[in-house]
Amino acid sequence: MNLYSLAILVAISAFIACGFLGLDYILKIGRGITAGFSGFFEGFKQQGRYALVGVLTTDATANSHVYLVTFMLGPEAYAPLAAARLLFRPISVVFQSITQVERPKVRKLILEGKIKVAQSHLKKGRDVTLVAWGINTLVCVCVLSFFLDYYWRSDTGHHALIIATILIGLINLIKSIRNPLSLYLQAVDKFKPLSLITIKSAIVTIPTVFFCLQLWGGAYSLIGVLVGELITFLLLKKLFTREINE
């Protein structure tokens, strides 16, 4: 028996086992699942669709170089970029952690009318993120300066690795500054204007990544991502300023 056959057998066994729970119990579970659909669709209609567009276009902005470099030059050409991204993995974890922790806190403060407290809270989060970015960048400099041959054992790709690390460092610096703005705007339900910002950024990012890739090679495609992040930051700053002045 191979793994595929075993998986089929387990699936059939689980399906048969459900019959012993009884039809009433199965129907009760089904009603419980479908009961929340109306609320889900209403929420999706109000904000969810804009959030979905934002997620898709944000991914296009942040990862277009991944798809284009791999598709046009092959996975070997993307290897130095992947190694550079790995060096900045700690700051990516910080971004995700702070967003997950701070978003509900900021939302609660805004609902309580404590706007100034919420903004002060975000500034502290930004400062923490910038310190983490500085430490992460210092570690990257040490690795590439003193342990490059251990970290990157290939005889080729050193230049691409260094260029990619510099550009990813700059990209993460912009993210450190603009993430609190995005978090605040999400907390005040500005998903529609946020989705428009990410669409505009993606429209500029993807062609820029493509042309930089064609002109200078894989590592320099990150210039397009950097331009996209800068545009996102400027548009977020404008929207944020307008929001707090209303």
TrEMBL record:
Species in which this protein is naturally found: Colwellia maritima
TM helices/strands, residue ranges: 6-27, 130-152, 158-174, 194-216, 222-240
Lineage: Bacteria, Pseudomonadati, Pseudomonadota, Gammaproteobacteria, Alteromonadales
Keywords from the UniProt entry: Membrane, Transmembrane, Transmembrane helix
Protein name per its UniProtKB record: Uncharacterized protein
